[in-house]
């Protein structure tokens, strides 16, 4: 079976999404940092899947706004998730280090935003659900 490179990005995005949802099945207290990180990672990997599908080598960055910039010329509907993407961006790095802690409210918002981005990207990529 021949797997396209963008399919691998989708698989990685879904792995983060699955881990996030498994954590959600438990108590949010004590895992908010992990939840915001996984939400950002899933959104990032979906954006990179789209770029790869379009023949664009995604830069090795975590800034979702920059990734959107690369994709919006062909997919202007992605502008509808810019605020969400830019809100998720800091969760890729800052919350993994001491001194910065995500709240449960931030985790809930990150999940909501990642859900919106995931839904749109799966539609654009012609994937179910």
Low-confidence stretches: none
Q: What Rg, in angstroms, do the CA atoms define? A: 14 Å
Task: Spell out the helices and strands N to C.
Answer: HHHHH
| Fraction of helical residues | 55-70%
Topology, number of strands: 0
CATH superfamily: Nucleotidyltransferases  domain 2
Kindly name the structural category.
Answer: mainly alpha
Enumerate how many helices there are, as a single number. 5
Profile the largest sheet: none
Regarding CATH, which class? Mainly Alpha
Mean pLDDT comes to: 95
- In the CATH hierarchy, the third-tier topology is known as Four Helix Bundle (Hemerythrin (Met), subunit A)
- Overall 3D form: globular
DSSP strand content: under 5%
> Gap between N and C termini, in Å?
23 Å
Number of structural domains: 1
CATH architecture: Up-down Bundle
